[in-house]
Specification:
The complex is a heterodimer of chains A (about 100) and B (about 170).
Chain A lengths: L4 H21 L3 H25 L3 H33 L13
Helix pairs in contact in A: 1-2, 2-3
Chain B lengths: L1 H18 L3 H21 L3 H25 L10 H7 L3 H15 L17 H7 L2 H33 L1
Helix pairs in contact in B: 1-2, 2-3
Classes of the chains: A mainly alpha (about 100), B mainly alpha (about 170).
Chain lengths: ~100, ~170
């Protein structure tokens, strides 16, 4: 059997970079949220993998569940804000959100 | 070998979620990525976390995303052209390649060997209730904050609708 640790680390890094890139280049608020979700998936996998690698799977699971709950809270509040932005501005393009300009 | 295939599927689903021209397809790609991540977690012996991931991330968050997409859809909305997407994500393969190369250099001598790592039979419930009680408190606070946030946002919206009616 091959050692999967470097492969998992590579997968985590690629997911994290794909999510970060999406957050940086996207103009749609929902797409930015999807990028944040992808980054959170990478973090969840990293926590579970770390727990497995050091032989403390239960601790990794506890932290992963906490992360999932935080993720849900973030997405719930961000969705409400997104709908509010749409009602206020009629668009979700970040370039058109001028009401926040100082 | 199967683990590598599943990992590649996870990365492809993540890329599809990021690059899909239609937002609805992107949300479905995200759900698929969550389901594949749950399979990987099962593989790593984290069964309870995998069940959470499958039910909450692949289920609840997808429903939230799809409802937000349907609430904010305009009749004039069109799919983003594939040319525009290719232009926007042109540098993604380069960045990913650089990251993979950097990581390959870092991980050329890995300290952890997952083949050798044997997890002792530690009960998750004991760890959660015995060592991580503060996490539970934090989870309750976060959930309450989310509930209050959503309630306040909807209240604001109702008030606005009333004002518009008047």
């Amino acid at each position: 059997m091959i050692n999967m640790f470097p492969f998992y680390c590579g997968g985590i890094a690629l997911l994290l970079i794909a999510g970060l890139y999406c957050v940086l280049v996207s103009e749609n608020v929902i797409r930015i949220l999807i990028g944040i979700e992808i980054m959170t998936k990478a973090a969840t996998l990293a926590i579970v993998l770390a727990g497995y690698a050091v032989g403390r799977v239960a601790l990794g699971q506890c932290l992963a569940i906490t992360l999932i709950i935080v993720e849900v809270a973030v997405i719930a509040v961000a969705s409400g804000i997104t709908v509010g932005i749409f009602r206020q501005n009629g668009s979700l393009e970040t370039s058109k959100l001028k009401s926040l300009k100082g | 070998m199967l683990e590598i295939v599943i990992l590649i599927l996870l990365i492809l689903a993540g890329l599809w979620a990021v690059m899909a021209p239609n937002l609805l397809k992107a949300a479905i790609g995200l759900a698929v990525a969550s389901a594949i991540l749950a399979i990987i977690m099962f593989n790593l012996n984290a069964t309870l976390a995998a069940v959470f991931e499958l039910s909450v991330c692949a289920g609840l968050i997808t429903v939230v995303f799809i409802s937000v997409i349907s609430l904010t859809r305009q009749p004039s909305d069109r799919e983003m052209s594939s040319k525009k997407i290719l232009k926007r994500f042109a540098f993604l393969p380069l960045v990913m390649l650089l990251a993979a190369l950097g990581l390959a250099m870092l991980m050329s001598k890995p300290d952890f060997n997952l083949v050798m790592a044997q997890s002792p039979s530690e009960d998750m419930r004991l760890v959660l209730w015995g060592q991580r009680q503060m996490d539970l408190l934090g989870q309750v606070v976060v959930l309450l904050t989310a509930v209050f946030g959503v309630v306040v946002l909807f209240k604001e919206r109702k008030r606005q609708e009333k004002e518009d009616m008047e």
